[in-house]
Amino acid sequence: MTSTVPALGTRTAEGSALQAVLLDMDGTLVDTEGFWWDVEVEVFASLGHTLDESWRHVVVGGPMTRSAGFLIEATGADIPLDELTVLLNDGFEDRIGRALPLMPGAGRLLAELYEYEIPTALVSASHRRIIDRVLTSLGAHHFSLTVAGDEVPRTKPHPDPYLAAAAGLGADPARCAVIEDTATGVAAAEAAGCQVVAVPSVAPIAPALRRTVVTSLEEVDLTFLHGLMTEMR
């Protein structure tokens, strides 16, 4: 995909151009939403419980404490939340150590953002230990800032992670484009006042005001993202 990209910081009478791009990680840049579910299934099987496939839509995209807490309550498993969190993170870290496939278009988009020096942040509900492992594959140089789920008082679906990322980049949240794959992440970005591009991974997401839905990151480039800001005016 070829782009003709306005210079960063271009101003118009109606307002500023795109100031930053904030990206979710699991299911958006890396094809790992299935990894999390597989690990959850395995861990609970070891505890003597079978997970219902319908629960997958409940736990996707949320913070570890919410997802793990829901599964403990749903199954009645006799395990403390903090202990379960460790088991899930250990299992996931083992999975990504064996394979970490990128979502279609992710590598190209990150390279384009880097080439044009667009301030870019990785904003994930995953813990710092997981983000740092994934960054070895994504390339830490692609991101000016990363925000982990265990580094903010409230993670997604609250706006705190995206507000923190925008502030860290010195950007107006209204001039930030957020790319997310779950309803939980979309809710967080919209609560922060950002323009959202939804690329649904597990469950459908409907278009809405300030929300554009695409089927793949292969549809997204800088011309597309700048166009979102133009449409806001």
Automatic annotation (TrEMBL):
Keywords: Hydrolase. Gene3D superfamilies: HAD superfamily/HAD-like, Putative phosphatase, domain 2. One of its GO terms (molecular function) is hydrolase activity. SUPFAM superfamilies: HAD-like. PANTHER family: 2-DEOXYGLUCOSE-6-PHOSPHATE PHOSPHATASE 2 (PTHR18901), PSEUDOURIDINE-5'-PHOSPHATASE (PTHR18901:SF38). InterPro entries: HAD-like_sf, HAD-SF_hydro_IA, HAD_sf, PGP-like_dom2. This is HAD superfamily hydrolase (TIGR01509 family).
